[in-house]
Write a structure and sequence with these properties.
The chain is mostly beta strands. It has helices at about 1-15, 130-140; strands at about 35-40, 55-65, 70-80, 85, 100-105, 120-125, 140-150, 155-165, 165-175, 180, 185-190, 195-200, 205, 215, 220, 225-230, 235, 240-245, 250-260, 260-265, 270-280, 280-285, 290, 305, 310, 320, 325-330, 335-340, 345-350, 360-365, 370-380, 385-390, 395, 410-415, 425-430, 440-445, 450-460, 465-475. It contains two helices and 38 strands. The termini are far apart.
Length: about 475
Amino acid sequence: MKQILFYALIVIVLSACNKVRPEGNENEVSDKKTIVFLPEIGSRAAMEQGFVDDDIIGIFMGKNEDDVGTFMWNFPCWFDEYNRMWKGPYDIFWESEEIKMNVVAYYPYSFLNRSQDLNSLRVSLPYEQSSIDSLRKADFLWARIDGAMSATYPDGIPLDMSHLLCKLKFNMYLTVEGQPSTDVPFIQLYNVKNEGWIDLNTGGVITDNDVANNVTMYYDADKRMAEAIVFPQTLEAGKLMHFMMASEDGNVAYGYRLDEPLKLEGGKEYVLDYKQDLEASLFMPYDSVYCLYDGQDIESDFFYAYLNGVQVLPDEVDPFVGNLKISIEKSEGSDWFDYKFENGRFHFGIEENLTPDPREGKIFMKVGSLKKHIKVCQDAVYCEKITRSLTYKEAVINSYEFNRLDYFTDVTCFIEYNETDNVGWVRAINLNGEGGDRAGVEVDENLSTTSRSCVVSFLHRGVLPVMVLNITQYGRTE
């Protein structure tokens, strides 16, 4: 998506280039030297690593006796990192080696009408600077070179850009029980000025003191540092920065107050220190999980989750988050399940329950001195119990209750006869779909006058009773 938007921007810029192309006969440029612009960054930088591919600047040029912009107006150039140069959509040439040009360049590029007063360019910095890209594009860079000549700069005109605005940093020494916190705070500057006017001819900055807003800062988790770009201004004593942190009692607000006013000057960087020791916290989107008797593969993620008895959807809830590294272990006797913990989410591998009883285990989670646990529960198979009383005649028992056997695999049958001298008169049929019809049992005719009985157990995988049939067959009465 970013690449699509960039190409769309190129199309718009190229269409605007028709308005900034210097007039002249294209057939006359074959013997003229191309104007080349080179990247340089002076003073303090919001972009410590320099420019990157796809950065765009705007360039104005005018002859020495004219205003800047009369020869070239807001000419867009992309940073070519490989060749270390600014590259425009087409080449522009020096009119002669003796002619002098005044050059103004600025970053980031904006579309400007020809009627724009270059002595008073309205600039509004983004109030959302939480990404590194938005932070970089908030910084306003400017350069001016007077009297540039082809002979003076044979390799190219170096655009030594300076930073007109201010960078405010906080070293965030956030600890939990004395250890560095792993939590990422959402930090805002409170009531700062981020709008004003810039004179592109001189690099002068005027801050609009009538407009103030909160600014969301970029947070570098590795450096544990918050950063934002603001206009030059005097920060009054009082509340300057605030942020929220999770705790066991809900979100807690913290902040930084200035003891005295702080004057921010353009092109400078200001670093403040903030220290706060926090209590250990662990956010748990659910506290128990449940799985059916047949278990699940660790990659399937088919389990039920509950928080305080209310079902939640595991793939939609927020991840588990602690403000220190989360240590995890299972309870004893929980070898029937395993887990993976990735990016704050659990994946469970649970073996099939071949016992007649439900199972329960625990996963213990620890953040600092704080301990919590998740219950892992697995259902047992309900054993269907059926009783049939039959006459002495032969019979087939395969009523609708036997449909449940279709849900099990490797079903076997074990028959226990109550009369040890009268066996073999009951047989299982169509187990595991072998006959194509519903499973059941066949009962032979009772040729004696004595009743007989047996217990038929249907076993899943040969061990787990899923249906028990009690049969009593009466003897002949004749």
